[in-house]
Specification:
The complex is a heterodimer of chains A (21) and B (228). With 21 residues, chain A is an all-alpha fold. Chain A is built from 1 helix and no strands. The model of chain A has no long low-confidence stretch (mean pLDDT 78). Chain B is globular. The N and C termini of chain B lie far apart (51 Å). Classes of the chains: A mainly alpha (21), B mainly alpha (228).
Chain lengths: 21, 228
Amino acid sequence: NQDYHFGLEEHEGISELFDCD
Amino acid sequence: PPQTPVRAAMNSIAQLRVDLTSSGDQPSANLAVYFKNCTVDPTEEVLQRVESLGQLFSQRFGEAVGPRCVGLGKQRFTLGIRLYYRVMESMLKSEEKRLSVQNFSKLLNDSTFHTSLLACALEVVMATYGGSTLKNGGYSNGGVPVETDLCFPWILDVFQLTAFDFYKVIESFIKAEPSLSKDIVKHLERCEHLIMETIAWRADSPLFELLKRTREEGPVEQAEPPAT
């Protein structure tokens, strides 16, 4: 997976993307 | 023996099956614990959703490929389900580590999250099967479309999912499943680009409403002037 351009910051994850903290 | 597109696809399919041998088509014991830790236990809804989306998927697969292939559609859906549960568990483990919480009630009761995650798992399965036909343009010798009809964004239409919601799971999916092949990661990246360049900007996209709402709420920070 090292070729993939990861864009999420360390403090971001799937929970934030679906608006749940 | 020389590597042919068909041989490459068969190897990828075999590898996917091997990778998923240890994963079941029901939530694992670990996943069941995450479900039980929720304020509202999502187990029943998850199982019901899988059942109804499975019927929908097989029906649409049969319509696209031929009624005799409904069984094939079911097989692919089963592989997709295994990957869906496996990635969900891996995502939750990372989230537990990152946030130091064990109650993911809101996320696990979000139907859009589940549908997007399942759609992404199925896209991986379909792209693995469709690999050889994609490379030669997706047409058999007789000029009949093969499989390409089932490739992205077909799954969005089947599950009535917006590209914007599908986009949200891609990166976390790739992070959560390190066994994905280079070709599959590239395929998911192409899906991302397609969404960002085209699909997310279609008239019915929820993105416009979200942008409008953000504008009404006022800018959080001053945007930098556009670069040349």
